[in-house]
Amino acid sequence: MTRAVSAADLAPTTYAWQIRATGLKVRVGGNRMAVDGLDLSLGTGVHGLLGPNGAGKTTLIRALATVVRPTAGSLELLGESAGGRGEHRALRRRIGYLPQEFGYYKRFTVREFVEYMAWLKEVPKADVPGAVQRAVERVGLADRADDRMKALSGGMVRRVGIAQAIVNDPAVLLLDEPTVGLDPAQRLRFRELLQELGRDTCVVVSTHLVEDVAAACTDVVLFAEGRLVFQGTPDELAAAGGPEHVGDSPLERGYSALLAGSGRERGSW
Amino acid sequence: MNGRVARIELRRSVAPWAGALVPVFALALLYLIPGPWAWDTVRWTEQWTSLAMWTRSLLVFLWPLVLGLGALQGLRDHRSAMGELLTSTPRPAWHRAATLAGTIALTLVAGFALLLVVGGAQVLAGGAYQHLGWLPISLVAALALIAAAVLGMGLGRTLPSPLTPPALTVAAFVFTNLLRTAEGPAIPSPAAPNRLVLLSPAVSQVREVLLTLSAPVHLGQTLWLLGLAATGFALLAAATRRGRLLAVAPVLAGSVLALLVLPSDPRRTYVVDTAAAAMVCEGRVCVTKLHEARLHDLAGPGEKALRLLHGALGARAPVEIRESTGLRDLLDTPERSRTAVLVDFGDGAIGKAKGEELTRALLGQGLAPACAPRSEREGGSMSDIVAQDIAAAWVLGDLKPLPGTAQDPDRQTARALPVWKRFRALPPAEQRARIDAVHEAALACGDSGALDQLPGGASR
Amino acid sequence: MRWLTLYSRSRQMPASFAATVIAAVGMWALGRGGGGSGAASASGSGPGDPQFAALALTAGVAAASVGLGGQDLALDRTAAIRWVPRRAAHVLLAAAVVAAVALAVRTLGDEMAGTEFIVRDSAGLMGLAALGAAACGGAYAWTLPVLWTAVGLFVPPPTNTPTRVAAWLLLPPGTPTATWTALTLTATGTAAYALAGPRGRHVA
Known about the structure:
The complex is a heterotrimer of chains A (269), B (460) and C (204). By secondary structure, chain A is of the alpha/beta class. Chain A is built from 10 helices and 10 strands. Chain A has a domain at 16-92 and 216-269: P-loop containing nucleotide triphosphate hydrolases (Rossmann fold). In chain A, helix 4 (110-120) packs across helix 5 and helix 9 packs across helix 10 (250-261). Chain B folds into 2 domains: 3-274, no CATH class; 278-453, no CATH class. Chain B contains 20 helices and 6 strands. Chain B has a 4-stranded mixed sheet. A two-stranded antiparallel ribbon of chain B has the order 1-2. In chain B, helix 15 links the parallel strand 4 (285-288) and strand 5 (320-323). Chain B is elongated and about 100 Å long. Chain C has 204 residues and is an all-alpha fold. Chain C is 67% helix and 0% strand. Chain C contains 9 helices and no strands. Chain C has helices spanning 2-10, 13-32, 50-65, 73-78, 83-106, 115-136, 143-154, 161-166, 176-196. In chain C, helix 3 packs antiparallel against helix 7 and helix 5 packs antiparallel against helix 6. Classes of the chains: A alpha/beta (269), B mainly alpha (460), C mainly alpha (204). The interface between A and B is medium-sized, with 33 and 21 residues. Chain B: Keywords: Membrane, Transmembrane, Transmembrane helix.
């Protein structure tokens, strides 16, 4: 098995943005548009995807992961249209994805699971052992690599999820709520990892936790009711809020200010 | 198929369990529970065909179990909630399905092969008829196991409920059990239409060792099982509703083709293996190729018995000893012949005897061939064997019971002794006449039995 | 009552119950429709062929056994409820339901099997399933009763105590060996499951 992306790896990139959505609409269930006319361009860096519950973050990430097909509009990933039919095989080799509900085979060991995922992502056979070892080390699970998954704690499982997402050195890395279940020390370590990855990868991190964004993201995407509310640096987000807005930190105040401004935040939760 | 990934599946899927289950349960049943599979001439390790048929008959319960195990494996993606992650990966679903199906097929074949090796070593040691005609029977069995596992995985993935594995297993078990073929008739006969019955991979238990399965049966069952396996595989790999609907096509095609090929008549299902039934002779003593190993031990006593018979009956004496190859229903009267002493090695009086004892049994069988069949499944009758005891004693001069049958030797003696004493008191010419009458009555198997021809022999 | 409703739903009881009824009616229909001679190679056919009843009860127990696992083991284990009596009650109740369904189907017309036979077999099989759940987890609980039925239907008519134990399911009611085997299985199975609970899942 040879890797079909080698040509794409070597050629100069023919796209300006790793992720580019224009008028993107994604329908979930019967007729609810979870993503409703989104225009978004994301390049290299760590992008924090913020938004209230039900804003459509998960649906957007699933569309980016080519799991759901866009209903309307265009979605370009790495210069290739991800909207149409087809297997997106070459594209999927270059995507890393950690779903919100990360399922895993409980009888597998950590190493076996990450190796299995590397195989599914069509990592060249010769590179697999090295890539697996690197991924497991990067999430700090080298000493538990040969433990069964069912013996791991919730935080460790989440880290295995991150390891499988990065095992193929993706150009687009999609992490849906990656910090759930991580203890504070692990969260710090995870932010470092994000910054490291963000140097050459387009990382999209969906989260509820504004402080994660402040610490690790180069860019914030604020999302509500399926539409883009704000895109800019964490500093710009902080600047949007004033003392009159709800929140314990400048970022949180900026977050509330923007959502209140868009008139979209309803209810006390 | 990727070797490393296959090794992971080999360790973490149900593959090792499936591979272990087949030989462990089969051997536990064959060795721990006494049954016809342990009886001399039909024993599962006696002949290659018997080995293949017995191990195949175990599919009555192994096949549903493997199906259930497959379904458990098919539930894995659902239970682990892996669907989301799997959808986002580039590798086509059928690669995954093929690796999984491949490992399970490998362990199942290895497990079944182990069973055959355990049995085959004993067949080899026992001097059986060497041939390869049994191989298709076992190959179809292995294919059936693979098809069951793959179909189970496909159905488990399509219907991801914890009820699926037990429901499939029980349903398959009802299927194989209702379509079981009774081995009692001369040709194993099912109650349901023969073609339908042949869709069950299990076969009848062994009673007539010369029977084997015909080529159309192998072909038809192979087509049907390939259809089942292809449907299972398609279900395992299908990603869309349409794919799942299309997956039904192979099994439909397979069953239609199979029903065209499979024989409708049980007599074209179970057929006599003519090569195995061919006679090999040493002098005037002939046995089937199947039992050639027994010929040498039979020839000496047989020749002696023929000489003694000639002395006793003169021109009307049988001129040869031949193994009976006629198929008959359970408890039906065995084949008769005026010119030959017909022997059946299933009859313990002959099958287990050696030397002088065998000569005596052959004399008894030659003078008063048994009407009630004696075999591992059939006990014969006391009056038959007592008539044989006395007829043989008339030639040899002393009364001895024939051991090796269901009829207790002491009870034989108790029954025979008074008759023998009265018989011995008769003048020689009268003795001769009575023996002639015994011979005729035994050949006719009419209302008046062989023993009835002797003084005091008539049943009360 | 609400607790019971939630509990039963969390253990897929409605689906299991439906499967039990379908199996019982199906086997009754097969047993009536002259199927009696089909499989009766070794055991001999005739009126009251016990294999259909045994198969129906096995199917019912297999379906009911799915509920022995529970949805979330960790949650079940930590919930502050006295599980031991409840688990024992679950096993015995499931056996009672399986038997009741078979008895109810019997009123459709044909005598499938005697009451004692049905009660004995469903209790013994359910005990076996409970034993399976305690030993290998709820998802695998069905394997033990199904296996034993399979072996029982395969072996020739029993002649001595070990084979009578092996074929206890099919023996006529009142056979001491069969009754004792069933009782032992019910008691050990219920006790093991009540005390240990279902074992954690293996294959996932």
